[in-house]
């Protein structure tokens, strides 16, 4: 498989991996693969070479993840901000994407054998149509695989993603499927491009920069952030182990913080449901029933109804998203037949 | 059998790392009035093999300001320090990722920010402690302002922005720095509220869902008393996470970690600013 390098760990790498696996391991790792251009400058080669090496390093890193039983990986491949780069560089990156996605389609058997599910996250309408079609094919072909997941953020920024999620919720209100008060953290979670993935446990950024650059801002609020100064094409297995060790050192504190936030979220939702239920009772002229039992029942009824509305809306949303890919795919099948 | 061995080695490894962390923090707290940085480097050299040197602490890679930062000439020096940097952040977020906050030290940090010329400072912890003890923090800041800036404290004024009382509390006429206390409610819950607001407009057909773009959501989030996005997040403590601090606003913020805010020295604060001044933002290009 061109996207996942063949090979096994050396003996000492395997030993280290086994030691690390004795502790808590991240289930989902996100990478900001920074430093390709600086690497190319360092080696006095073309920028495009830097990006190609960067892709090879990704393939190697995915191999390490499989060896370490890390089943989900998200990578920041191309930001919407990157469209600002020089035309030849952007064209070069698009060409690289074209080659790699086409190659992927040739390796469908391998992908099936290893159960690799590929997802591409971002505003795909910003990309050239032929790349959109290739992506659609790759995504549909691997949709039902469930052994490991690779999420490629392409034409992506976190703010666009969050804005899009709010837009979807607003669309749901427009369609009469949900009410504005149904909008919650949970609902927005499900409206993001990453709705099918858990939040990343670990985010690694290479090349020494210490910022998030508009990547998974919503999803990484309680992730372990590791900034490493090595350039991406030079990333080694030991750098990766270092990052995982960092995750393990932070694991307990982050779990505690996450639990605190989850508790607060549940309480906020309950409070919101109480207010809405009380408002409804007011509107139906029943006023505030003195019996706490009746009040409790009203809240429970409201919660059940809200959850029902949200569930239907999310089903419709999923269908809308699937249709985007199937329509693109139909287009490519039609043009292939013609 | 092998699983037991691996687990044993793992436990030893983590015990060593925790020991290193404990010793370093003990040194930092108990001998703060010595030239502990020299001690710390010596101790670190002994205890930390090169492969574990992964923390991006400013004092590891930047030269420190030469000694002589005594309180009396502090404020003159602080202003010129600020001017000497290539760039100064407009808004600094102080992210306290430690269990027990020390109000005096945080107040010092806020006052130093003001003194070097930073216009906006926010203070955050992920348990909402500062939000609940807002007035205590404000009092401490005013006290430290008086102590550290002395006579000049009249020139520096602080505007406290608070969600609970919309009217800002000003101490003097001119306004030079704005301080805001933040909690996790200012993160995702605020984004949810902005989303609900927009959905209400859509429900009343004052907007269409397709009208929303990044700039519109940004203004909905910023509100009327909005501060600029933080350019620098100074994170205090050993937890490597933003812990829910303003997720929308920190998209381009540099995140610089410092081991602790307890007994924080001006030199360490300033070396973090120097680290920030050296960062190059390409903005996607």
UniProtKB/TrEMBL annotation, chain A:
Class of enzymatic activity (EC top level): transferase
Listed CDD domains: Cis_IPPS (cd00475)
Reactions the enzyme catalyzes: n isopentenyl diphosphate + (2E,6E)-farnesyl diphosphate = a di-trans,poly-cis-polyprenyl diphosphate + n diphosphate
UniProt entry tagged with the keyword Zinc: no
Pfam family, one: Prenyltransf
Protein EC: 2.5.1.-
Source organism superkingdom: Eukaryota
Gene3D superfamilies: Decaprenyl diphosphate synthase-like
Keywords for the protein's UniProt record, in alphabetical order: Transferase
Family: Belongs to the UPP synthase family.
Name of the protein this chain belongs to: Alkyl transferase
Organism, as annotated: Huso huso
Organism taxonomic ancestry: Eukaryota, Metazoa, Chordata, Craniata, Vertebrata
Automatic annotation (TrEMBL), chain B:
Matches recorded under SUPFAM superfamilies: Undecaprenyl diphosphate synthase
Cofactor field: Mg(2+)
InterPro entries: Nus1/NgBR, UPP_synth-like, UPP_synth-like_sf
Flavoprotein among keywords: no
The UniProt record lists the keyword Endoplasmic reticulum: yes
Listed Pfam families: Prenyltransf
Keywords from the UniProt entry: Endoplasmic reticulum, Magnesium, Membrane, Transferase, Transmembrane, Transmembrane helix
Localization: Endoplasmic reticulum membrane
EC number(s) from the headed UniProt entry: 2.5.1.87
Reactions mediated catalytically: n isopentenyl diphosphate + (2E,6E)-farnesyl diphosphate = a di-trans,poly-cis-polyprenyl diphosphate + n diphosphate
UniProt pathway annotation: Protein modification; protein glycosylation
Protein family membership: Belongs to the UPP synthase family.
Protein name: ditrans,polycis-polyprenyl diphosphate synthase [(2E,6E)-farnesyldiphosphate specific]
Species: Huso huso (Beluga)
């Amino acid at each position: 498989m061109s996207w996942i390098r063949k090979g096994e760990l050396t003996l000492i790498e395997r030993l280290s991996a086994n030691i690390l696996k004795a502790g808590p391991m991240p289930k989902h790792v996100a990478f900001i693969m920074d430093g390709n251009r600086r690497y190319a400058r360092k080696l006095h080669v073309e920028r495009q070479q830097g990006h190609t090496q960067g892709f090879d390093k990704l393939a190697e890193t995915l191999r390490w993840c499989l060896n370490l039983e890390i089943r989900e990986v998200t990578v920041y491949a191309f930001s919407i901000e990157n469209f600002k780069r020089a035309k030849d560089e952007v064209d070069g990156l698009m060409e690289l994407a074209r080659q790699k996605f086409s190659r992927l389609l040739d390796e469908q058997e391998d992908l099936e054998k290893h159960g690799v599910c590929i997802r591409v996250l971002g505003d795909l309408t910003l990309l050239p149509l032929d790349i959109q079609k290739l992506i659609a094919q790759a995504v549909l072909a691997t949709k039902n695989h469930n052994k490991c997941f690779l999420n490629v953020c392409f034409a992506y920024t976190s703010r666009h993603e969050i804005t899009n999620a709010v837009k979807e919720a607003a669309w749901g209100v427009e369609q009469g499927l949900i009410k504005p008060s149904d909008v919650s953290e949970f609902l927005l979670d499900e409206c993001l491009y990453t709705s099918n993935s858990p939040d990343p446990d670990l985010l690694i950024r290479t090349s020494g920069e210490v910022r998030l650059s508009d990547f998974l801002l919503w999803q990484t609020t309680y992730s372990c952030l590791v900034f490493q100064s090595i350039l991406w094409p030079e990333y080694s297995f030991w750098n990766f182990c270092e990052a995982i060790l960092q995750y393990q050192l932070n694991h307990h504190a982050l779990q505690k913080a996450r639990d605190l936030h989850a508790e607060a979220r549940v309480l906020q939702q309950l409070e919101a449901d109480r207010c809405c239920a009380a408002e409804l009772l007011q509107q139906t002229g029943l006023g505030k029933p003195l019996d706490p039992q009746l009040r409790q029942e009203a809240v429970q009824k409201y919660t059940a109804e809200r959850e029902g509305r949200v569930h239907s809306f999310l089903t419709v949303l999923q269908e809308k998203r699937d249709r985007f890919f199937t329509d693109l795919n139909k287009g490519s099948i039609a043009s292939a037949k013609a | 059998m092998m699983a037991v061995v691996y687990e044993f080695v793992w436990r030893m490894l983590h015990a060593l790392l925790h020991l290193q962390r404990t010793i370093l923090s003990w040194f930092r707290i108990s001998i703060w009035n010595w030239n502990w940085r020299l001690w710390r480097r010596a101790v670190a050299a002994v205890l930390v093999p090169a492969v574990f040197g992964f923390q991006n602490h400013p004092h590891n890679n930047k030269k420190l300001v030469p000694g002589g930062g005594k309180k009396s000439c502090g404020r003159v020096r602080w202003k010129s320090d600020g001017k000497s940097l290539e760039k100064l952040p407009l808004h600094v977020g102080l992210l306290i990722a430690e269990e027990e906050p020390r109000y005096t030290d945080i107040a010092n940090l806020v006052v130093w920010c003001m003194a070097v010329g930073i216009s906006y400072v926010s203070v955050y912890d992920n348990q909402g402690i500062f939000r609940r003890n807002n007035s205590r923090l404000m009092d401490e800041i005013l006290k430290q302002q008086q102590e550290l800036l002395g006579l000049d404290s009249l020139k520096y004024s602080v505007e406290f922005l608070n969600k609970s009382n919309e009217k800002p509390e000003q101490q003097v006429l001119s306004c030079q720095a704005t301080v805001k206390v933040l909690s996790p409610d200012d993160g995702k819950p605020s984004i949810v509220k902005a989303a609900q607001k927009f959905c209400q407009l859509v429900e009343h057909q004052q907007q269409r869902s397709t009208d929303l773009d990044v700039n519109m959501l940004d203004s909905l989030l910023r509100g009327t008393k909005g501060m600029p996005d933080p350019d620098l997040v100074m994170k205090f403590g050993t937890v490597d996470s933003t812990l829910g601090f303003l997720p929308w606003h920190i998209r381009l913020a540099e995140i610089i970690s410092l081991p602790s805010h307890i007994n924080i020295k001006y030199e360490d604060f300033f070396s973090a600013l120097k680290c920030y001044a050296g960062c190059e933002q390409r903005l996607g290009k």
